[in-house]
Amino acid sequence: MILNIIANSMKLLPKSTANSFLRKILPATHSSSKISSQFRSNPMIPRDQGGGGYTASNRQFPSWELAFFVLIFTLALFFSTAPASAQAQRGTLVHEATIRVAPSADAAKLGEAGRGHELIIIETSRDWTHVEAILREPRRDADEDDPASEGKTITGWVRGSALVSMTTPNGDKIVFGEAVDSEDQASRRRGRRDAAQEAMRLYYRVYDLFPTSPLAAEGLYRAADIRWQIERSDVLTRPSAREREAYMRGQINEDWMKQVIKKFSGTKWADLAAFHLIENKLCGDWQGASKCPEKESEMYEKYAGEHEQSPSAPEALYDAAWRRSALIEIYKTEANQKKADESKNRALALAQKIVSQYPQNDWALRAQDLIFYIQQGVPTWGNASD
Predict the structure, then answer these.
(1) Which residue in 210, 284, 213, 219 sits closest to 256, CA to CA?
(2) 3-class state of residue 166 by DSSP
(3) Please, which residues have CB within 8 angstroms of residue 356's CB and are 6 or more apart in sequence?
(4) 187, 199 in Cβ contact below 8 A?
(5) Cβ atoms of residues 347 and 370 within 8 Å
């Protein structure tokens, strides 16, 4: 391959110069008779003229030719090695495994690799696989350059029994199934420790290792959803969670949800991701004022109008209807009966829309309950609703 690149590069040079250059760096391409006849009396290795010292000779390799040769050789080396690294086999573990210095159960331990960590496969030996284990949380982009996301890398041997690679038959389903199991463990009171993080890594690995799989979009969304729930729990425990204005509250990282929308635009997973993003715009505490529920109701109505096929559309309509019902009492405290009546009509219309458009959905049943409260004049917000 290197010779081909060099030969093709000669086309960029004048014919006479290229021929001269080839004679200097590729003598094997000419016959032995031509080589011997074309050497001058003062070659690069001078002959002994019997007078002592060395005979002065012209430079046989001008500096520009040397630079050109180095450039061509470097490019040839790059293009010959780049495909090998790009095609490196990768995989993950569906069960934690010990990394050892040699392919033996008696070999010294180097560390532990958990479910869902990325593994670069170097070689295999019977029941063992030589890997480079990247022990970090999944990155949003393959080219993301964040020192905090680098984690730790360990090179060693692991048993291949729990390893799923990019070429494992039904590998996407195996990894996804293990992710579902880990997520179930995380929901249990005495579930496996760190099961939520394991589920997040495994779901992401489905998307990462099997990007063309029918499960790839759902895998990326579920990974983003688990991360969102973990960060949400932290945000809600901060004192700022009670602030009225959204910008004064702690914000949940939106990057992963936006990645789902970017990679799988037009799918239900992108719709679900967009629904999550509304949460960062909600007020912490309405503090009895109409501004927050008005704005929030509009956001939910807008979402439902733009994502009618979304699984979250009926929930968005209910969230809008409930806020309109809350405004009935809030406007009364602001001595604005006209707006209170308008909110009542709007709340009823939104709730009826849920019942008619999504009759088989659980939110339709909740909407029926909300309609009953509004028609009976039972407050749905404030002290009177307690």
Answers:
(1) 219
(2) coil
(3) none
(4) no
(5) yes
DSSP codes, 18-84:
HHHHHHHH-GGGS-HHHHHHH--SS-SS----SSSS------SS-HHHHHHHHHHHHHHHHHHHHHH
Angstrom distance (rounded) from CA 374 to CA 381: 11
Residue type, 3: L
Q: What is the DSSP string of 197-221?
A: HHHHHHHHHHHHH-TTSTTHHHHHH
Going from the C-alpha of 298 to that of each of 181, 201, 261, the distances in angstroms are 38, 35, 22
Q: In this structure, what token pair is assigned to residue 42?
A: 């003062």
Q: What is the DSSP letter of 99?
A: E
Contact present, 361 and 314 (Cβ < 8 Å): yes
Encoded amino acid at 269, one letter:
W
How many other CB atoms are found less than 10 A from the CB of residue 264? 19
Which residues are registered as beta bridge partners of 130? 123, 157
Which of 129, 134, 125 has its CA nearest to residue 154? 134
Q: What is the 3-state secondary structure (H, E, C) of 288-325?
A: CCCHHHHHHHHHHHHHHHHCCCCCCHHHHHHHHHHHHH
Which single residue is written with the structure tokens 């009759």? 359
What is the pLDDT tens value at each position of the chain, 386 positions in all?
444 544 455 554 555 554 554 444 444 444 433 433 443 444 443 444 444 444 444 445 455 555 555 555 555 554 444 444 446 799 999 999 999 999 999 999 999 999 999 999 999 988 999 999 998 766 655 444 444 445 689 999 999 999 999 999 999 999 999 999 999 999 998 889 999 999 999 999 999 999 999 999 999 999 999 999 999 999 988 888 888 888 788 899 999 999 999 999 999 999 999 999 999 999 988 989 999 999 999 999 999 999 999 999 999 999 999 999 999 999 999 999 999 999 999 999 999 999 999 999 999 999 999 999 999 999 998 765 54
Nearest to 269 by CA among 228, 229, 219, 212: 219
CATH fold group of domain 90-170: SH3 type barrels. (2.30.30)
